[in-house]
Backbone:
């Protein structure tokens, strides 16, 4: 989605196989929007790429299946067989779109895939990816995870140069920059174009005979490279947003694509170049807090390890006498295990999550207050009744969902409810691919911790300190992280002024 950004506040003969097919499952998006309640954070994507596999489409499908948590509204797979480039995308879950029949329409030994969360108001199917563009450099398909921040000028000058945009997606700007680059070779044109855009991007691209993978110079979003051993020929090279995809593909983790690196895979093997250097790394710490799966290794560190440490540090920083530690599932579970072990208090699954919410028909009763949360979560009364409960969650956004959960636990008979959050207060929006509300809607940007406690009706409330979070995520590679949603200090010069104004009236 194109947004308005301002600087300086913070500091080829084709055949029918090339058809751009689209598959729709319209009820899914509508259902998800109805029950979301607007108080959860979403990331916009997961990407995968496969080079050198006889059934590349099916491998991409498996990779996307493992990355489904990164976006559930649309998905797409493009394949190439040296001559043709096919592309199919649709609304819904990966398994709903890519049936056996659909996968058979995607021939070739190379594939890229994408699964997406679409932001409110955009044209979801139009902006589903991969995006395929027929350019002066030939056919290019692109799939992108992240968000670019200096788009307005780039788009306007491209349009003046004759570019015709099919979508409002920022990914297409990269392809148009490639198409309009004066560089003589395709790889030079890609490097040249990536160096011109600012923001967060982990990208996979494909032509008829090559795969490219790149990360932005600050390394906001993760992207890893793996290998499937083939005893009878060259290995299959794979890329994925998270390493959990490699497990399903039976691929070995090789390494992370580096910030500012462009990797190219051809029949001759893997080559790489740094298209940008000298930028401080600012990987998204929220990947460790919430987005990534605990069985993934992100930015050189296991997510499970980081979340366990967050829970342990939270227990040390804000201990409170209690009978049980209860996670808000699913993302609060690992931190709650760490908290419970550190505090010596029993861990109990006192809330059960319904994993099928949003995939079924929503009854008219949805208008009833709290129905959205009750659809998703249900208390286990016999674990909560008469107990002093420590609830562990990973964020408070507007505060409305947290209040409903606190009320639900109290309604199930809990004597006391103490809420602990495994990261600092979210005080500023994200411009790098996480769909956060603007500052005026973030409760922690407009209220003190005590005011938030009263609003959510908890007996006590505490957040993990920034130092505690950074120490929890600090692995052997000593990553440097973006923490802008907790500090307001943005690593890029471009931010959306409208989005960082605080509320003028209390929310
Ligand atoms: S602002 Fe927050 S969510 Fe966005 S990239 Fe930085 S740490 Fe991640």
Residues:
């Amino acid at each position: 989605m194109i947004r308005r950004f301002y600087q300086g506040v913070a500091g080829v003969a084709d055949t029918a196989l090339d058809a751009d097919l689209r598959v729709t499952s319209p009820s899914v998006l509508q259902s998800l929007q109805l029950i979301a309640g607007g108080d959860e954070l979403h990331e916009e994507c997961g990407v995968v790429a496969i080079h050198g596999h006889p059934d590349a489409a099916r491998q991409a499908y498996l990779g996307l299946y493992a990355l489904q948590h990164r976006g559930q509204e649309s998905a797409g797979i493009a394949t190439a067989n040296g001559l043709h480039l096919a592309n199919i995308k649709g609304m819904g879950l990966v398994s709903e779109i890519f049936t056996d029949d659909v996968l058979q329409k995607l021939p070739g030994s190379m594939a890229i895939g994408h699964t997406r969360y679409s932001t409110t108001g955009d044209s979801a199917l139009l902006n589903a990816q991969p995006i395929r563009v027929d350019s002066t450099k030939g056919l290019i398909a692109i799939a992108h995870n992240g968000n670019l921040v200096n788009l307005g000028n780039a788009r306007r000058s491209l349009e003046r140069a004759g570019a015709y945009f099919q979508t409002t997606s920022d990914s297409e700007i990269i392809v148009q920059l490639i198409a309009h680059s004066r560089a003589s070779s395709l790889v030079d044109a890609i490097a040249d174009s990536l160096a011109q855009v600012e923001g967060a991007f982990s990208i996979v691209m494909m032509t008829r005979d090559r795969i490219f993978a790149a990360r932005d110079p600050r390394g906001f979003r993760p992207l890893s490279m793996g290998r499937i051993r083939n005893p009878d020929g060259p290995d299959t090279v794979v890329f994925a947003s998270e390493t959990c995809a490699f497990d399903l593909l039976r691929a070995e983790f090789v390494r992370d694509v580096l910030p500012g690196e462009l990797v190219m895979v051809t029949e001759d093997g893997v080559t790489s170049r740094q298209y940008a250097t000298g930028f401080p790394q600012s990987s998204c710490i929220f990947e460790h807090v919430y987005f990534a799966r605990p069985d993934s290794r992100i930015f050189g560190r296991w997510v499970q390890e980081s979340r366990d440490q967050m829970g342990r540090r939270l227990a040390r920083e804000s201990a409170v006498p209690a009978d049980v530690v209860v996670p808000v599932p699913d993302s609060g579970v690992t931190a709650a295990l760490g908290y419970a072990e550190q505090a010596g208090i029993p861990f109990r699954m006192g809330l059960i999550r319904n994993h099928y919410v949003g995939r079924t028909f929503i009854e008219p009763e949805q208008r009833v207050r709290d129905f959205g949360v009750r659809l998703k979560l249900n208390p286990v009364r016999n674990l909560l009744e008469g107990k002093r409960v420590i609830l562990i969650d990973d964020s408070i956004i507007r505060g409305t969902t947290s209040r409903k959960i606190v009320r639900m636990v109290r309604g199930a008979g809990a004597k006391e409810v103490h809420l602990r959050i495994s990261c600092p207060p979210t005080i500023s929006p994200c411009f790098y691919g996480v769909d956060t509300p603007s500052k005026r809607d973030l409760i922690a940007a407009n209220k003190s911790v005590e005011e938030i406690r009263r609003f959510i009706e908890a007996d006590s409330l505490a957040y993990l300190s920034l130092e505690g979070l950074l120490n929890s995520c600090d692995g052997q590679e000593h990553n440097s992280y973006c923490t802008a949603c907790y500090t307001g200090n943005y690593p890029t010069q471009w931010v959306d002024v409208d989005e960082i104004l605080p509320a003028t009236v209390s929310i």
Notes: The chain has a mean pLDDT of 85.
